[in-house]
Amino acid sequence: MSFLNKSLLDAIYDRYSEINDSDSLDFISSSSCSSASSSPISADSNNNFIKNQSVVSFYLPEAYSPRKAQDLNIRTSVSIVMTNLGLTHIGDETQLESICKDVLELDLSKNEFDNWEEVRKLLKCLKKLRLLNLSLNKFPTSNEYFNWPLIENLNTLNTLILNSCFLDLDLVESILDRLPNLTELHLASNNYKKITFSSQFLKESLKILYFNNNLLEDWLEVCKLGKSFPNLENLVLSENNLENFNNSDENKPNCELFKNIKILILNKIKLNDWSALDQLREFPQLKHIRMQNIPLVENLSDEEKYYVLVGHLDESIDSLNGSKISNDIKENCERKYIRYFMNLNSKPERYYELELKHGKLDPLADVNMDIRKRVHVKIKYNDKNIYEKIDVRQTVGEFKKYLEKFVGHPSNRFKVFYIDIEACSMAIYGPEELKHTNRCLYSFNIRDNDEFEIDLKPVQALHTTTSEYQFQYQHLGHLHQHHFNSHVNNKSYFQVPSNQNLTNRIKNRKIQTENLSNKDSTNRLLKRSKPGLITSPKLINKSNEMSSKNRNFLKNDSICSASLPIDLNKLKTTGDNE
Questions:
Q1: Rounded Cα distance, 214 and 408, in Å
Q2: 375 or 482, greater pLDDT
Q3: What pTM did the predictor assign?
C-alpha cells in the first residue's frame, strides 16, 4: 500500500496481516526492534533518562487473521510502534477502537500527521491510552488551527511526547489544558529560547519535564517553567546555553519555584563558574544531579572531575551522575577537594568552608604509587623452563589460561605456585598457590626474576561397577555413601556380599594385581574426597567376620588395583579399632 493518505488502521492491518491463524501466537516484528532503539522514551547518549522505566515490549499480540475487523483483536499488545510509515490520519474510528481497546502506549513519531483533529479522535478511540508520542510530525504550529473542546473527557493520557514539533508554546498550553491528568511532558529539540506561557497558566499535575536541547540562555526563562509547573520533581535541561542558576526575582526565589525538584539533569550546559554551583543549594529537595561535559571541569581527569564536583556540592546531594554518594565517599572527596585547591591562587568559597570543617590538611607526599605493568619471570614445569615478560594486571584465571599451551593441559588440570625468590632465600615463606581466579597478579607483589612452578594434578580413575565398590569399600571398612548414590542407582547402603562370592570374584580377576601382604592392610582406609565410615553395627560385625575368615587367603591373593579409584594406591594405615 502506498504511503499516500495511509491511515493508522491500514498500518495495523498491514502489520498484523502477516500473522497466520493460530492459537495465541506471539509475534515480534523486526521493525519494532529498530524503532525501539530510537524511541525518545529510552535513554540517550547524554544520560538524559531520569527514571527507571521498564523496557517497552513491542508487538506481543495474541492475534488472529485480520480478514474481518472483528477478528483483529490486539488483546495483549500493551505498546504499539508505528513510526516512519507516512501516516496521515487514523482511519475508521469504530474499527480502531475495537481492535486497540487495550493499547496503553502508542508511538506515531516520524509520520505525516498535520491535523490536530486526528489526535483528538485518536484519544477518544483509545480509552486506555497512557503514553502518546507525536514527535517529528507536521502539525500546524500555531493555536488558530487547534479547536478541541475543553469539556471533552481526555483524562487517561499521562505522558505526551512532542519533540521536534516546533509548536508555539501557547498551542502547547491549549493542549495541556485539555489533558487534566498529564504528569510527564517532552518538549526537547524545539528551538525554544523564550518561555511564552500566559501568566495565568498553571499545570499542577505535571511532575516530569524534558526541556533539553533547546536554546535557553537565561535562568529567568527557566523560572517561568517553575511558575507554570509548580509541582515539578524531575527537570531535564541538558544541552541548553545556561551559564548559571541566578534568579534575581526576590518575590519568587528558586527555593519557592522549585521546592519539589528532586532530580536535575544538566549535561552539556555552559556552566563555567564555581559560584554558579553554589546556587544549587537553593533547591530544598534536590537529591540527584547529572552534570557531565561542562566547561567548568573539562580539563580535569575523570577522577578529578568526580571528587571535585562531589566535594563542592552540598551534603544533601545523594548521587552524582548516577553514582550514590555515601558519607565516607563524601568526606574523602571533600579532603581531596581541599588538597586540589590548596596550592591554587584562585579558590572557591567552598574551599574555605571545608577547611573550617576538616582543618588545614598537609599535602600528600609525592610518592610514585604506580604499579609496574610487566615483569620478567621464570616459569617451570617438569624439566621445561621458560622466561616470560608477563602483564601483572591480568587475573589468575587469565594467567592460567595463558599457560595452557605451555603445559599442554587445560587450566583445571594443573596448579600454579608463585615463588618469591627473595623471600624464599631468606626462609620467610615458601611457594604460594594461585587459587582465586579473579585475583590480579599485581596483588602478589611480583618482581623481576621471581618464579612460577606448575604442578599437574593426578588423573581420577574411571568409576568401577557396583559390585566392585561393595567389595572395595567393605573390605577397607569404609562407605562413601554420597559418591555411591551419585553414580549407582541402587540402595543407599551397600549390601555385604557372601564370603563365597568374594572368593570367586577375587580368584577370577585376570589382570595385573597388587599384593597387599601386610597383615594390617585389611584395615587401611580408601582415601577419597569425602569418605564416610560405616556406622551401622550390623555392617561392622559382618565386615569384621569377613575379614577374620579371609585374612589368610588375602595374604596370598590380591585386590585388582585397576578396578579401584587411583587413590587406592595411597592407602593409609589406621589402628585396628578402625
A1: 62
A2: 375
A3: 0.59
